[in-house]
Each structure stands twice: as structure tokens, then as C-alpha cells.
Specification:
The protein has 289 residues and is α/β, with parallel strands linked by helices. Helices cover 38% and strands 16% of the residues. It folds into 3 domains: 119 residues, Cobalt-precorrin-4 Transmethylase, domain 1, CATH 3.40.1010; 92 residues, 2-Layer Sandwich (Methyltransferase, Cobalt-precorrin-4 Transmethylase, Domain 2); 65 residues, no CATH class. The longest helix is centred in the N-terminal third of the chain and has 21 residues. The structure holds S-adenosylmethionine. S-adenosylmethionine binds next to helix 5, strand 8 and strand 10.
Length: 289
Amino acid sequence: MTLYGVGLGPGEADLVTVRGKQVLEACDVVYSPGRLSRSVALEHVDESKIGDVDFPMTRDEEKLRSAWKEAAAEIAPNARDGDVAFVTLGDPNVYSTFGHLRRTIDAFHPDVELEIVPGVSAVTAFATAMGVEIEAGAGLSLREAANGASPTGPDRMILFKVTDAPATHDGLVDAGYEVTYGRRLFMEQGETIITDDPEEIDERDYYTLAYAEKEALEIEQATAAFQRQSGTEDETGLSSRTAESDTGSDESTRAETTTAGEPVGLGSELHELERSEGFEHGDCEQHWY
Ligand SMILES: C[S@@+](CC[C@H](N)C(=O)[O-])C[C@H]1O[C@@H](n2cnc3c(N)ncnc32)[C@H](O)[C@@H]1O
């Protein structure tokens, strides 16, 4: 049978994926490494299914290794006899406790089948929660900023473990970044805070991240023309989006929108290539073009 690593998403019970929920419901035991992941899991399974594993709050590697060995020894027999889940917040493969369990199981119980159910990671959830768009053509790096660290370099960074926001902020601002902080995003427990003032979140809370972007960074998108245009067109009461819904005809709408967007590079070779690749892979909404 199987040990499933199930990503629960950032902390709201209805952001668990459909597959994650199905797996949790089907498993005999659901192990959770912490209070928050446990409270999300409990929205989907009965308390009687929750398994006991203990993790000490220590950096002592010897103690940690022995705790993981104990956890693996508890979980492995149950994963041989039936299906069990180990839940983590976010995604099990992104800075997650599940990695420790997987390595320990691989080393000491290699016959146990493992499967991972991805979850909505804070790496992507932050963008929606904080109103940030990572546009096509932009890069995004993931870094850690524990204990006031201020990693620098990339144009755009998401920083995890922002435990001393004022100190991290100073370093980032000195290096020319604009920074926004997000605390407990999409999380049921505790207060969600989004701010660009580090003093507002100077109290340590592990579930804090930062989005840092080099000042005056801008990538011009083809569709930015629509915004400029709708500003002018609004005066006549006809924006391209309104025209789209008014005509009710997809074909005519597309023609109109395309014409409206042409001045900003639409129709260029690169854009055509990007568009056809997007269609091919199904991640490109035709009406945007
Ligand atoms: C060890 S990492 C775990 C990441 C998780 N596996 C994921 O995929 O989202 C923990 C860090 O992720 C960030 N984080 C995770 N969930 C968050 C949330 N709901 N709101 C804000 N930050 C969060 C915080 O920076 C926290 O210190």
C-alpha cells in the first residue's frame, strides 16, 4: 500500500485540492507534523484518524535524525498494511518537513511505496493574496530570510521565513528593492496582514513572507495597451472588454480586440510563436489575443 505526502495548501481548508481531499478521506491514518496542518486536516477527516508523530523543536541534528527515524518506524508498518497520509502546509516538495520523512523512509524502509499529492504553495498563493502579477518574461527567485537576513541579487524574489522584518527590510531597501510583506495568507488561523511597513509586523511570526522587487522594474506586456486604451475609450463608453461582452459573438469580438491590441507588438514573430505554443499546451485563453 502507500504513504501519501499530501500538500494542504496555505492554510484554508477549501484550498486543499480535490485529489488531496480524496486521498485524506481514503487513508486509514493521517499524520501531521504540526498544529496548523492538523487543524486543516481535521476539516476533512475525523479526529480518530489522526496519527501521532512527535517532532522536537531543536536544531540538534542528532536529535532531529532520531525523531525522524522514530516517525518513520511508526508510519512505515501502517503504510505497508494500508494507505496512510503525511500532511504538510503548502506543497510537500517545497521547503517541507515531508522531505525529511521521505529521505528517512527511503533509507530505512525502502519497500514502502510513496506518492505525493501537490498542494497550493505559498510560492504561488502569495501572488494572488498580495495582488502581484509575475508577468510573462519576468523571473522570480525563492530565497530564505530567516533571522533578519536580506538576500539580494535577482530582480524579483519571494522570501520565506521572514522572522525579523525590520532587519530584513533595511538590507533590501539599501540594495534597491521595494518590499511587501504577507503574513498568514489564505490561512484560517491567526490574522492575515499585508503591508509594506515592516514595523507593523515586527512581532515574530514564522508564517511571514516578503515579495521584493527591484525599484522601477517594468516589463511591458502586449495587453497593457488595453488598459491605456480603455482609459480613452471609457469616455465614449466603449472599452474593448465591454465591446467583447456586448457583441456576444466570439469571432467578431476577437477581431475587434486584436485590432485594438495591435500597436504593442501583437503579430510579431515572437508573439505568434508564444501564442501558438500557448494554444498547443492549452494555457492560453484565446480571447486575450
Ligand atoms: C518551511 S516553508 C514551507 C513552505 C510550504 N511547504 C509551501 O509550499 O508553501 C515555511 C515558510 O513559508 C512561508 N509561508 C508558508 N505558508 C504561508 C502563508 N500561508 N502565509 C505566509 N507565508 C507562508 C513562510 O515564509 C514560512 O516561513
